[in-house]
Amino acid sequence: MEGISTKEQLVIAGRSFQSRLLLGTGKFGSYLQMSQALEASGCQIVTVSLRRVEIGENKRKEDILSFIDTEKYLVVVNTSGAMDAEEAVRIAKIAAYGGLPKWIKLEIHPDPRYLLPDPVETLKATQLLVKDDFVVLPYINADPVIAKRLEEAGAAAVMPLGSPIGSMRGIETKAQIEIIIEQANVPVIVDAGIGKPSHAAMAMEMGADGVLINTAIAIANDPCKMAKAFKMAIEAGRMAFEFGTDEISRLAVPTSPIESFL
Q: 165: which residues sit within 8 A by CB, 6+ positions away?
């Protein structure tokens, strides 16, 4: 994949990915537009809702999966719409039965207004799915305690929100995410609320392992160009994190000290 060279690849559940950008597939104007944005983004992990996937003998030609090259992209079904652990586990098992990978982006948000994740049901579902050999990527509030509990339960990564889903308000939970990153032994992927490439770059500079974007790309005037902008921002942010920056100083520090001329 073309892009900026960085030291390490993203590794989730023992599988390596060159791209640290994950893409959601909702809200695009068409499946063709979505497919073109995926290509422009350089991503390798794509999340889809089971509600948009046709399983069984009655598949339509315009099924979303016919626009996603499963040899090129890892398709991860999300459980969006699940109200509790039982429903989320059922969605995951239906997806696996339909031949999709046993990788699940676990979303349980019963509150329809704010779509905030239910930590109790998310932990319960993670425990059940891990026992059934699923690779579980839980979407969570930026809560370091639940992040650690999910890691201990066998989650392959944790996905704290930057701000509410689709709000595009950016990273309003910076302090909490920094604690999650500090404590985590699994990848931390910032998910939800990221509205600009600068937000994504900020997440990567903080030390996040990846970022999942959907709305900001899908509703852009030119989704392909926006996808490319996010790709570049994530690469730049990761490079800044890997190679480091100087500590912030309260005082001004001259770039050309006068002593050098004396």
A: 109, 115, 192, 193, 215
pLDDT (0 to 100) of residue 136 = 98
Which of 7, 93, 102, 105 does the annotation list as catalytic?
A: 105
Domains contained in the chain, CATH given? 7-243 (3.20.20.70)
pTM: 0.87
* Helices 144-153 and 119-131, axial angle in degrees (round to 10): 20
> What CA–CA distance (Å, rounded) separates 80 from 105?
9
Q: Is 7 a catalytic residue?
A: no
Phi, psi of 135 (to 5 degrees): -90, 115
Is 192 assigned a ligand-binding role in the annotation? Answer: yes
The annotation status of 98 as a binding-site residue, yes or no, is: no
Within the chain, residue ranges assigned H as helices are 31-41, 85-97, 119-131, 144-153, 174-183, 197-206, 215-218, 223-243
